[in-house]
Write a sequence for this structure.
């Protein structure tokens, strides 16, 4: 099979529509340009989201997580997202400085549906806003203020196919290389992988916020 062959590549929307057909009415009416009360409830129940951005150096998708409700629905057109401690690469934030477009995908453990929000974001450091997201006396570095442009919930097919929430499909973490092992190999032993793995559990506990 030669997937690189031009005759095997889809090149226009007409061909896409011939392959997939027309979208059903239900998949059209569930898209809104504001946060409907049902969508608000979904966001408030979600402890995890994937945040996607675009910038001059490329695309980025990164995880965001905290207790459910960590993304605040300020009003039907505005979301507030605290930016907690991380690796200080700040890839998402660097992208937003040049391209304000942002996409979020919310997941709730046990729920097959996911919720997608697209919009535009600014990075805010207003003291009163940072204080609203204080945890254990520690403030986020910044808060993203997202102006909502479209909201859409996805059906459960992807989650059901993946078995994401099925305990029987959970793997033994030791079946994959440890973080320290990966870092040691990628750094050509500049990073001591054994020491990194030994110190990681305590470091995670003390640097969550």
């Amino acid at each position: 099979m030669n997937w690189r062959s031009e005759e095997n590549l889809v090149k226009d929307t007409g061909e896409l529509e011939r392959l997939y057909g027309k979208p059903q009415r239900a998949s059209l009416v569930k898209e809104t340009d504001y946060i409907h009360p049902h969508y608000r409830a979904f966001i408030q129940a979600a402890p995890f989201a994937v945040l996607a951005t675009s910038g001059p150096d490329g695309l980025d998708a990164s995880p965001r997580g905290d207790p459910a409700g960590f993304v605040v629905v300020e009003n039907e057109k505005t979301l507030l997202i605290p930016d907690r401690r991380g690796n200080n690469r700040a890839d998402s934030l660097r992208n937003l400085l040049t391209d304000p477009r942002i996409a979020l995908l919310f997941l709730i453990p046990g729920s097959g549906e996911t919720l997608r929000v697209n919009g535009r974001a600014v990075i805010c450091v207003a003291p009163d806003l940072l204080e609203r997201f204080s945890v254990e006396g520690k403030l986020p570095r910044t808060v993203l203020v997202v102006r909502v442009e479209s909201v859409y919930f996805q059906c459960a097919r992807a989650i059901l196919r993946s078995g994401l929430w099925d305990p029987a499909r959970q793997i033994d973490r030791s079946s994959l290389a440890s973080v320290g092992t990966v870092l040691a190999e990628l750094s050509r032993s500049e990073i001591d992988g054994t020491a990194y793995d030994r110190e990681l559990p305590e470091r995670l506990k003390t640097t969550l916020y």
The mean pLDDT is 96. The helical segments are 13-20, 25-29, 37-45, 91-98, 127-132, 157-162, 179-186, 193-206. DSSP finds eight helices and seven strands in the chain. The first helix runs from residue 13 to 20.
